[in-house]
Design a protein that fits this description.
The protein is built from 10 helices and 8 strands. 42% of the residues lie in helices and 12% in strands. This is Sugar phosphate isomerase/epimerase family protein.
Length: 281
């Protein structure tokens, strides 16, 4: 039986949940509801990361922090990057590495401690066998790890289910096994509840992988607004609360018409089940 000390888990929500042109209003709402932070898809805020100055990045961080919020993590970090791919060629990997180094630099400027590696389309192994693809991924992540560790950031590899057109690391335990073999500071695994729901994985998987979890996304299949996907978060929330993971809980859901109500409802459900100490907004 796991005995876990009581602690307050901090709760954030991804900026995927609101329109880009409503960012100021959304940040005010997020702070008012009681969230502790906001997770960023950086391209939605800054556009091309190679063109934005770190001074502008830090200015945005101050806007967030002035509201009493933090930026714990970045996601969607490979969106729109041209010529980058994990398996296509050594040149495509070099482009991906160069971009991920820039992401780490931006994360450090934001004081974000996690960068989520999802990008299912950029990790299609093609004709590579499973062992060949695994070896390429291990070497790739070991190459990147020191840069992230030196900046106090973790690159968290996320399992994406086949429903999301993913063909490499589609299950939670596969993400765990990859990170176990990389075994380097600067690389961890991303836990996503949507993946667990879609794959019908045993909630107990969370206990088995707990020592490699670097970040947690609470999501539902197809990134539906939290509470609308017809899934039961209770067993997963129990496993997360009883695990040794002590980092952030971050809500990931897509934009919906009534995004303000969706934020409120997500805060209430996730705050109650996964964080316990959060009250109803």
């Amino acid at each position: 039986m796991r005995v876990v000390p009581q602690r307050q888990r901090q709760l954030s929500v991804s900026n995927l949940a609101w329109p880009a042109d409503k960012d100021d209003e959304a940040l005010d709402l997020v702070a008012g509801l009681g969230f502790d932070g906001v997770e960023l898809a950086p391209g939605k805020v800054f556009g091309n990361l190679n063109l934005v100055s770190l001074d502008d990045v830090r200015a945005y961080r101050r806007q967030v922090e002035d509201r009493g919020l933090m930026i714990p993590a970045l996601q969607g970090i490979l969106f729109g990057v041209q010529g980058a791919h994990l398996f296509e060629s050594s040149a495509s990997r070099e482009r991906m590495i160069a971009h991920l180094y820039r992401v780490a630099e931006v994360a450090e400027a934001l004081n974000a401690k996690v960068c989520v590696f999802g990008a299912p389309s950029l990790r299609d192994p093609g004709a590579l066998s499973a062992p060949e693809a695994l070896n390429v991924a291990i070497e790739f992540l070991r190459t990147i790890a020191p840069e992230y560790a030196s900046r106090g950031v973790e690159l968290c590899f996320e399992a994406n289910p086949p429903l999301y057109q993913c063909r490499f690391v589609t299950e939670t335990e596969e993400a765990f096994e990859l990170v176990e073999q990389v075994n380097a500071p600067g690389v961890a695994m991303q836990l996503d509840t949507g993946t667990i729901f879609i794959n019908a994985e045993d909630p107990a998987v969370i206990g088995r992988v707990q020592h490699r979890i670097g970040h947690v996304h609470v999501s539902e299949p197809n990134l539906l607004p939290i509470g609308t996907g017809g899934v039961d978060h209770g067993p997963l929330a129990d496993e997360v609360r009883n695990s040794t993971y002590s980092g952030w809980i971050s809500i990931e859901m897509k934009l919906t018409g009534d995004w303000r109500s969706a934020l409120r409802e997500a805060y209430n459900l996730v705050g109650t089940l996964y964080c316990e100490t959060k009250g109803a907004a």
